Amino acid sequence: MKLLKNIFLTLAALLFSLSFANAGEKWDMALAYGAGNFHSANATEFAKNVTDKSGGKLTIVTHPGGSLFKGGEIFRAVRTGQAPIGERFMSALGKEDPLLEVDSQPFLATSYGDAKKLYKASKDEIVKGLDSKGLVFLYAVPWPAQGLYSKKEINSIADLKGLKFRAYNSATIRIAELTGMAPTKIEAAEISQAFSTGAVESMITSPTTGKNKKIWENGVGYFYDIAAWFPKNMVIVNKEAWNKLDSDTQELVMKEAAKAEKKGWSLSKKGNKDDKKALADAGMKVGKVNAELKKHFEEVGATMSKEWADRAGARGQAVLADYK
Ligand code: PCA
After folding, report:
1. Cβ atoms of 261 and 142 closer than 8 Å
2. Model pTM?
């Protein structure tokens, strides 16, 4: 009896240690945007590919819609290791590094081709900056071109004055200031509520976010396609978590990240067309701003570019020189 018990205990211990050795790493991945958003869907595919191909060494589980950490918390959560991996809107992190805001400077890059060029010109510096904060950069994907949403029609500079404006980063706050609108910073998760309660009546964001939020249901009838910039989300990993992976697994993650980046850019391009159509199909008026307003926004953009170049210093100048 005693012998049987000993054998049983030894077997149990053996099984336990085996399963422990096979358990590998598990990463919970924090995503701010809803499961139906293309960034989240792309990240989930990335996570599945890594998990399937790592031979049990790494399992990545995505948590969309801010269910693990909200958008505004994700950068710090990954930096401190509370979440090993997460996705964050880069240009909301200008206080961490002004280089992260380069993709939200109005009219600096107004096509996917230029956005890609700007990304290439800025990537090394951004990756270095993140590395110095204990973060490993995996990939970045742009949102479709940013346009102006409004509850009421906008035909002149005067129509912008005093509009309660939803901002998502310092650059959109600055645009509002320079155009006479009244900005409030609100994360994407709270957009519908902000419009339905009347806290805001305009914003600049992608056709995708307007579609994801069914923004027409909140009294927003106008979308002006100013296509002034293509801001990106990035996926970052905590360096301590990264260092626990063996080199094969690290290589696999980087390879899948490169694939996700490529896929993400093409999904974004597709959304840039399809989602504008979705807004129009839902009954919104989708068009361009008139020449007077366009010029106004371009002047605001030029002011902001100068301000950003000052803030970003020599690193910023080098990136701009490389881009141009
Ligand atoms: N959607 C996100 C960021 C940029 C975009 O297109 C948002 O509105 O918060």
Report:
1. no
2. 0.93
